[in-house]
Amino acid sequence: KYNLPKDFVLYVGDINYNKNIPGLIEACKLAKLPLVMVGKQATEIENMDLTHPELSHLKNLDLKNVIRLGFLSDEDLVDIYNLASVYCQASFSEGFGLNPLEALACGTPVASSNRGSLPEILGENAVYFDPDDTSQIASAILKAKNSKIDFKSNLTWEKTAKETLMVYKSLCP
After folding, report:
1. What are 111's strand-pairing partners?
2. d(Cα 25, Cα 102) in Å, to the nearest integer?
3. Which has fewest Cβ within 10 Å: 22, 46, 85, 143?
4. Residues 8-61: pLDDT tens digits?
5. Cα gap 13→39, rounded to integer Å
6. Tens digits of per-residue pLDDT, 83-106?
7. Is 88 helix (H, G, I), strand (E, B) or coil?
8. Nearest Cα to Cα of residue 22 among 85, 91, 80, 84
C-alpha cells in the first residue's frame, strides 16, 4: 500500500525541536537505512515557515532518504510498526514515550534516547544512546535492528487507573 522498503527505521510523532529530527535523519544516513516518518507534520515541512524560532531546526534538512507518510489510521499504523526493522526515538526530552511502547508491543526493536522519561518507560527493552551524538544514534539503530524483542512491561491501563484513583483519594478528605 505504501511501497515501503524491506528494511527501514520508523519514527512516529511530531517534528518539534525536542524530537531531534535532524539528528535522526543524519543517523539514518550513517546507518544506511531509510527513515519512514509518520505524523501529519512530516508531510507539511515544505509548507512551514522555517524562519519561526520553533521550526528553525528544520532548515536545510536533506529529506532524500526520508519517506513521509503523514497521518495514518490506527490499523495502518499497526501494520507499519510491524513492518519496521527498528523504531527510533531520538528525543532530547520526552514527556512519556507512547510511540516506542507501541512499537515494542508490535515486536519492533527500539533504539531510544537515554534522556527524559524514556529509560524509565522502556526499561531494558531498548538500546539507548546520547541524542547529541548522531554516530551513537546510528550504532544503536543497527544494534537494535539486529536484536530480538522479549518485551516485558508492568504498564497497563488498569494499573494507571488504580494509581490515579489512589492519588485522587489521597487528595480528597
Report:
1. 88, 127
2. 21
3. 46
4. 999 999 888 899 999 999 999 999 999 999 988 877 777 766 777 667 777 777
5. 5
6. 999 999 999 999 888 899 999 989
7. strand
8. 91
